[in-house]
Amino acid sequence: MENENRVIVITGASGAGKTSVARYLWEKYGVPRVITHTDREPREGEIDGVDYYFENLDSWHQNHFIEQVNYSGHKYGSSYEGLERAWAKSKQSNHPGIISLVVDTVGAITYKKTLKNQAVIWFVTVSDVAGLQNRLIERGDNPIHVVERTSSADFERDMHLPTELKNQSTVIINDDWQLTQKAADHFITSLFYK
Ligand SMILES: Nc1ncnc2c1ncn2[C@@H]1O[C@H](COP(=O)(O)OP(=O)(O)OP(=O)(O)O)[C@@H](O)[C@H]1O
Ligand SMILES: Nc1nc2c(ncn2[C@@H]2O[C@H](COP(=O)(O)O)[C@@H](O)[C@H]2O)c(=O)[nH]1
């Protein structure tokens, strides 16, 4: 019988609003997010074990990674341990068997290949890069880093839905937060009542 558990893989460019969508799914529907790992420094307000597991060289190797990437000069990865914790949390929720995960498009392709129908891909994007840059600056990112990041090849790549995910993804254009919430409500409800 097909495994009915689902991982909502939320992907897209840095600043497109992926984490905001994942947070909304948690706050409104109790869908837990997989906490991933990185070796970058925490931004102001970010908490270890909540936003990321912030790792050093030694601790990085203590995890068992499903996939890992280099993004903007730093390591990021999702681990079996992180997924297990999210599944455990999901058992306590009103909608067990659904978790979310926020990754770049390289990670999303890996999940689709590995989990097949168990991975439900949501590609989040925006119409206007200048608006996205302002959002990142308002988030507290260093303006120089914002310019560097949004000029990077990783960013440019993640602004486009990869060929491997075409016709297998739900696209959310996150220009207006009210509309994004409505889109998320619609897509999550269709998963709950499948
Ligand atoms: N529709 C929106 N309108 C205005 N601001 C938004 C909207 N969606 C998200 N934001 C804000 O934009 C900033 C970036 O969003 P978020 O952190 O969710 O992006 P992200 O794709 O997860 O970025 P990263 O990959 O860099 O972590 C946040 O401060 C968030 O509150
Ligand atoms: N493939 C993976 N991508 C990940 C993972 N954790 C986060 N990310 C993505 O990295 C960039 C940069 O994140 P930031 O928090 O430094 O802005 C962004 O696209 C994240 O979604 C992961 O485990 N695997």
What is the fold's blueprint, element by element?
Blueprint: E1 6-12, H1 18-29, E2 37-38, E3 53-54, H2 57-60, E4 65-71, E5 74-79, H3 80-91, E6 98-102, H4 105-115, E7 119-125, H5 129-139, H6 143-150, H7 153-158, E8 169-173, H8 177-192
Parallel strand pairs: 1-6, 1-7, 2-3, 7-8
Antiparallel strand pairs: 2-5, 4-5
Helix pairs in contact: 5-6
The structure holds adenosine-5'-triphosphate and ligand LQESDW3C.
Describe the structure.
The protein is α/β, with parallel strands linked by helices and 194 residues long. It is 41% helix and 21% strand. It is built from 8 helices and 8 strands; from the N terminus they run βαββαββαβαβαααβα. Strand 4 and strand 5 form a beta hairpin. Helix 5 runs antiparallel to helix 6. The chain is globular and about 45 Å long. It starts with 5 loop residues before the first strand and ends with a helix. Bound molecules: adenosine-5'-triphosphate (ATP) and the ligand Nc1nc2c(ncn2[C@@H]2O[C@H](COP(=O)(O)O)[C@@H](O)[C@H]2O)c(=O)[nH]1. It holds the Pfam family Guanylate_kin.
Tags for this model:
binds the ligand Nc1nc2c(ncn2[C@@H]2O[C@H](COP(=O)(O)O)[C@@H](O)[C@H]2O)c(=O)[nH]1, binds adenosine-5'-triphosphate, 194 residues, four-stranded parallel beta sheet, alpha/beta, 8 helices
The portion of residues assigned to helices is 40-55%
Number of strands: 8
Bound molecules: adenosine-5'-triphosphate, ligand LQESDW3C
Strands ordered across the widest β-sheet: 6-1-7-8
Please identify the structural class as seen in this structure.
alpha/beta
